[in-house]
Amino acid sequence: QVQLVESGGDSVQPGGSLRLSCVVSGFTLDYYGIAWFRQVPGKDREGISCISGSTGAAYYADSIKGRFTISRDNAKNMAYLQMNDLKPEDTAVYYCAIGNYYCAGYADFSHFGQGTQVTVSS
Question: Does the pLDDT value for residue 88 go beyond 90?
Answer without folding.
Answer: yes
